[in-house]
Amino acid sequence: MAGKDQGTAEAASKHPIPPGFENALVSPEAYKEMYAASMADPDAFWGEQGKRIDWIKPYTKVKNTNFNFGEVSIKWFEDGELNVAANCIDRHLATRGDQVAIIWEPDGPETPAKHITYRELHDKVCRMANVLKDQGIQRGDRVVIYLPMIPEAAYAMLACARIGAIHSIVFAGFSPDALANRINDSEAKAVITADTAPRGGRRTPLKANADAALLHCKDSVRCLVVKHTGDQTTWTEGRDIDVLALMGAASADCPAEAMNAEDPLFILYTSGSTGKPKGVVHSSGGYLVYASMTQQMTFDYKDGDIFWCTADVGWVTGHSYIVYGPLANGATTVMFEGVPTYPDAGRFWAVCEKHKVNQFYTAPTAIRALMGQGPEWVEKYDLSSLRVLGSVGEPINPEAWVWYDKHVGKGRCPIVDTFWQTETGGHMITSLPGAIETKPGAATLPFFGVKPVVLTAEGGQVVEGNGVDGVLCIGDSWPGQMRTVWGDHQRFQETYFQQYKGYYFTGDGCRRDEDGYYWITGRVDDVINVSGHRMGTAEVESALVAHAKVAEAAVVGYPHEIKGQGIYAYVTLMNGVEPTEDLRKELVKWVRTEIGPIASPDLIQWAPGLPKTRSGKIMRRILRKIAENDFGALGDTSTLADPSVVDDLIDNRMNRG
Ligand code: WT7
């Protein structure tokens, strides 16, 4: 999306820092000084920053990292010991035990909100931790969490952290198959789920999905069920456990395990350009330092502020900016069960008014969807509590940025456009409210400790200076960086460190403009970004070809008004199969059940043949152009085995927009 109007937006002048940010945590001068210090001596810089959290055993070493392909190794604070849950709860009890830690806002406004204090959070987390221990979960074991946006999701994460178990959250929108794959790949001992999940007035049958998934998992996997709605579910004696009942009976006292800084805190599966989703492994110490520092500084979070990140805990944004970052800082964090448009398009703003939200953090896709409903939905509410607005998930198009600034922020709230990834643990390139002037659509400048490097896509030459384009790499490690791919360190190295030697490769393209600001221009690999959610085209393709009537499939992204990118599938049917509208619907439904609704193809084109090279490689460049309705310049098609297939694909293209 950024590409379209980038030229004019870039030329536009910077938006100055609005009044009221003179005393922001980071001033323009402090940003420059601290950034320079973080580059000059990372050991000294992070050695100091590491003290923002409590250590059971202080570290004596800070950075020990290696980006060389073949020997990649990332360690931070490696001899330190800590407990993440104790940092997010216990250490606040003396000073803010009665302060609200989590405000839970339910799906429907008629249901009352819940206000959970740090003391209550401690009680719940200890009880849940004891329930896990009673089920035989020990330090180092994996626990899959398949929960909706309810407080128990945060309790479950922190309960795992408390006993040293590694959680792996599976987004509640994922299918039973996707859940089973993640339970099996992580060799989880238990899955924590709920009966059903209300969302936008509808209910997802989570427990039924878990039942279906568990048919493909070891019999020993326990199923801990949170009875959230009270809806009827099936019950397998001996396997299913009523968590809330057991929590009621459990002890509210549970010691926090001393974990090494490098012990994994969680695994989160994410899509890549090839193969099945990877288990991204995050550490305990470095991750927490980075999540807490970015939450505080990027949003200029001050004691007493109400912070709302609208993401789902099923994504990394929810991990770092609903749970770990805010709670490590003793913040009050809002957790929202619903969707932006239910019961109406004013829901976000109603919640901001109701809970007097100070920092609001959402995705461009939500802004675009609400923009389409008209500003009157925003204007109905008192948004005077808002101070900082955030954006995350994909490049924000300047129109959406300007609308967000004008109608939501009333021109007085800095917008922080935070570029980062599941792999990075926290913000990488972002403005800071009191320190960095913004430009609509630009992620602006690197966070402390982050060294962006622009390389030529082919050849990987470093591109110096400003006003340049290339692929975005990072030159050195930062504490929040992922440590490995679960069970496959080789894949970690190959995915991120092989193509451009000595660098971490983000997979994104970028431009560094005349002012040195970074503009992320989108993925340069076979990953598409649908409503801020990452999808591997290979995953959708393999779901499609798993259907009996499909011979071959190729999937690409195309520009979509609301979603940013939509999913465009070219499908070759088995010999003799009729291409019908019903079959089209059937395939969409098929992908939804194989992966989940977020992977549903938006457009399916019947393709009698796909453009292939003589060696059989599909030329995606051509398919992308056709899907973008931009086939004027298809480039060189002479290497195709049968160039005539291209004409047929153009004639029958689906996106004539
Ligand atoms: C990809 C990572 C980590 C947050 C949620 C998505 C894109 C993310 C921005 C932004 C431009 C962005 C990139 C990145 N992306 N934020 N502010 N501006 N692009 O996490 O699923 O790991 O996806 O999202 O393409 O590589 P993710």
Automatic annotation (TrEMBL):
Function according to Swiss-Prot or TrEMBL: Catalyzes the conversion of acetate into acetyl-CoA (AcCoA), an essential intermediate at the junction of anabolic and catabolic pathways. AcsA undergoes a two-step reaction. In the first half reaction, AcsA combines acetate with ATP to form acetyl-adenylate (AcAMP) intermediate. In the second half reaction, it can then transfer the acetyl group from AcAMP to the sulfhydryl group of CoA, forming the product AcCoA.
Gene assigned in the entry: acs
Region entry Disordered, spans: 1-21
Source superkingdom: Bacteria
UniProt-listed Enzyme Commission number(s): 6.2.1.1
Catalytic activity, reaction form: acetate + ATP + CoA = acetyl-CoA + AMP + diphosphate
Entry protein name: Acetyl-coenzyme A synthetase
Post-translational modification: Acetylated. Deacetylation by the SIR2-homolog deacetylase activates the enzyme.
Keywords on record: Acetylation, ATP-binding, Ligase, Magnesium, Metal-binding, Nucleotide-binding
Family annotation (CDD domains): ACS
Binding residues for CoA: 199-202, 317, 531, 592
Segments passing through the bilayer: none
Domain AMP-dependent synthetase/ligase span(s) in chain numbering: 90-477
NCBIfam families: Ac_CoA_lig_AcsA, PRK00174.1
Homology family: Belongs to the ATP-dependent AMP-binding enzyme family.
